[in-house]
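Dear H.,

Thanks for agreeing to be a second pair of eyes. The structure we're designing against is below in token form, covering all 275 positions.
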């Protein structure tokens, strides 16, 4: 446990000492939320609502995007946290850790927990946009968001560690992650509604674990159970798999199981990786 805590503490301290990273973490979410969201709000309402009518005609697209922006921040931070493993390899620091009495399993778990903690903090930082976009966030919502953020970040950090354990350069890691994450992000419903997609794309959406992660954030923040059925359907908030309506509990269980599988694979792969 001391080894795990030490690795976790190192990653968290590095994050808080890196002011450029703290400030820069707002750049991409701000661009998507304010520029993309505001620009697409009228266009989406027009296309989906039909010239000022329909379920999405009066819906604020920026508010719809906000849970997805939180999800995007958590995803990117969690999976890119494994970049430190590759950087430690390049600078020789990882070799020093591996020859220490700390087991490789403890190192891997510490890395995953460190990345998850940083991702949760950055996800919570996105709440500063709440007063500017008109989303009502209560204390109870925040208390629900924190464990869900950690669960999602834990799963994504494990995926990042699996990839980082197989690569030796930071450039290679960033290229692989971008090729992997961006299609998953755009097919998760984070940036646009999941309604009206072609069958082949709908299949990719349903097997994408980020889809259910984003949907959990939407269920907490947008509270679709209080919306009209037509609006929920137009926004793609009623996820179904084989005609089974996916519930919040189903999503928690599914993401948790994936997290367990990925962290086992990550620790196994990391324990066999070369420094």
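And this is the sequence the design step returned. I haven't edited it by hand at all.
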């Amino acid at each position: 446990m001391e080894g795990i805590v030490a690795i976790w503490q190192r990653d968290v301290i590095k994050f808080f000492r890196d002011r450029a990273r703290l400030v820069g973490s707002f750049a991409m979410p701000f661009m998507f939320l304010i520029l993309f969201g505001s620009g697409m709000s009228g266009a989406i309402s027009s296309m989906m609502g039909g010239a000022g009518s329909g379920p999405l005609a009066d819906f604020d697209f920026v508010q719809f995007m906000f849970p997805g922006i939180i999800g995007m921040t958590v995803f990117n931070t969690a999976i890119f946290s494994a970049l430190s493993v590759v950087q430690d390899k390049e600078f020789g620091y990882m070799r020093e850790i591996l020859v220490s009495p700390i087991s490789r399993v403890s190192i891997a778990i510490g890395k995953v927990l460190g990345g998850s903690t940083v991702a949760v903090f950055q996800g919570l930082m996105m709440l500063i946009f709440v007063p500017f976009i008109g989303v009502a966030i209560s204390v109870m919502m925040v208390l629900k968001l924190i464990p869900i953020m950690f669960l999602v970040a834990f799963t994504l950090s494990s995926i990042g560690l699996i990839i980082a354990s197989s690569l030796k350069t930071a450039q290679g890691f960033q290229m692989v992650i971008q090729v992997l994450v961006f299609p998953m992000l755009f097919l998760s419903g984070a940036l646009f509604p999941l309604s009206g997609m072609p069958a082949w794309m709908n299949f990719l959406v349903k097997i994408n674990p980020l889809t259910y992660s984003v949907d959990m954030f939407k269920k907490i923040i947008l509270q679709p159970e209080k919306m009209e059925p037509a609006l929920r359907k137009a926004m793609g908030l009623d996820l179904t798999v084989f005609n089974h309506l996916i519930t919040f509990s189903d999503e928690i269980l599914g993401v948790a199981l994936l997290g367990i599988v990925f962290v086992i694979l990550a620790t196994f792969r990391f324990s066999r990786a070369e420094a």
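Two observations from my side: Residues 139-164 form the longest helix (26 residues). DSSP finds 14 helices and two strands in the chain.

Warmly,
E.
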